[in-house]
Amino acid sequence: MLLRNAAVFLLCLAPVCFGQMTTDQKVADFMQLAGLYAKNYAPYEWKRDVIGFDLYNVKPWLEKVRNSKDDLEFLDVCVRYVASLQDSHDEFYISSDFIADMRILVDIYDGKVLIEGVDRTALPRIQFPIGIGDELVSVDGIPVADLIEQFAPYAANGSGNPVTRRRLAADALTYRIQSYMPLAGRLGDEAVIVVRDADGVESTYTVPWVKTGTPMLIVGPVPGFDLNSAMQKKAAAARVSLPDRGLDRMERRTTASRLAYAFSRGNRGIVREDAEPAEEAYVPEYMRPMKEFQTMQALNPKTDTAGFGFLYPVFDPPLNFKFRLGFGSADEFLSGTFTAGAYNIGFIRIPSMDPTNATTALKQFATEIAYFQANTDGLVIDVMNNGGGSLCYTQSLEQYLFTQPFRGVAYEMRATQTWVNFFSYYLGQAKSAKAPDYVIALYQVYLDQVQQALKENRGRTGSLPVCGYTFEDIQPALDNQGAVAAYSKPILVLTDEFTLSSGEAFTMMLQDAGRATVFGMRTDGGGGNPGTYDATTYSEGVARVTRTFVTRANLVSTPGFPPANHMENVGVYPDIVMDYMTRENFDTYGAPFVDAFTGAIVDMIAKTKQ
Fold it and tell me: Which of 176, 175, 207 is nearest to 191 (CA)?
């Protein structure tokens, strides 16, 4: 009996008993992932020549794959391979719902990791007298600066810009999502943190990890193939929906806490969950697939901890600010006016390019622009923390900001047979449904361009229209009488590192045409349309792959990059550089930042009055 039990024990040391993948299975999965990018990834040459990463050079990665000791280490290699592209729209993630949360919110101000919020239910003040604004020094004995470097590959939704990467990596100090960080499944129950207060006194706390979901520790046992057996059946990995982190339940002070508090005392809270989606206009079957093609946004823009989609700005507006939109449950914008010297200035925050209802949002925007045109001398548009959405909604907003025809959104597309089949099928659908001539012409142009590019080595098309039969000479919006309904006065656009995807395209079009001055920080640099794919068979991983390039009107010079006609990694560089992530802004609810952009718009208005 003892010999039998010993035999069973020894057998269970084999990888398949523990559910670990074999080396051959890991190699097969990795090469499947690499092949997916080799075939579909549009900005390959840019990443190879400028970023310095060649996704075709798989030899060092295969060595890491073969040396990985278990499934989680292998999955971590896959995450790091895709992260090396430094692309905000490209991630490899696993099918896990496990999250470990320290219930402390942090971000980087003036190079230091400051505590923005503490959940006093999980961390009572009497046991954890951690102050808002204190500095997080280390976690489990490792300085936060070192951990931020280690966690950079897990910066989903902001890999295009090194500043964005660092801020997202800092968030992972206290908030570990296993779908992005495979090794997070091994976390213990507690973390030891060192915190430095305003007087420079350091204190050590043992903080519990609040865990939700079930950690993924193994992929699961799968026998190796007999080479004569049938092909395995592929299992699709489902996208895991991340829960709300409950930021509104924390004791917090970000730069806009007073504003958020004022709104919470009104008829709505911080998170806009009370608005019922209005019924959207009917979209013909042959046009529905275009929505994916026309979408460019962060992975999960409405719930991400970066604050994508929040209605409120990161700063408190001037004390004499008069609100217009922002209190109503269906409001898609926060807007109002304030005075500075002799001038009346309009303000509107566009939190997302993925509104609850695009038709309602465009009506609200048109109403606000008409009011601003009649009652203000200049306009400030806030697209900070805008995680993107629909490029065509974005282009429609632009029509209210140009009084003359302008260049709209255009893509270069990585040509594949998949696109040929896609456009061929929907061209047939459009013809059968007797779609408008411009729709049929658009599909025909796409099909012809992709077929031509497919003949070339890793061919890409030329610039293609995204929202109609042309991207040139997009006309301004008109009112019911046929008159131009666009704003004609100075415009200042506020950006930061979390202005991403379609939010960047919005800024790009205005800057390229000289229509607006951009104020703030260089945007993230997420410049293409991603598709989601089942990326690995055995480990059930999922990947987003950038398949297109948004193109600019002209070559643009950006510090640190060669001249480029796109936004990938480059982002949109501000005309006036101003960082709001400073200790002074933290302590004063963004007062220096507000004073600076107020001065900028006043100067712009004054020049038009001379």
Answer: 207
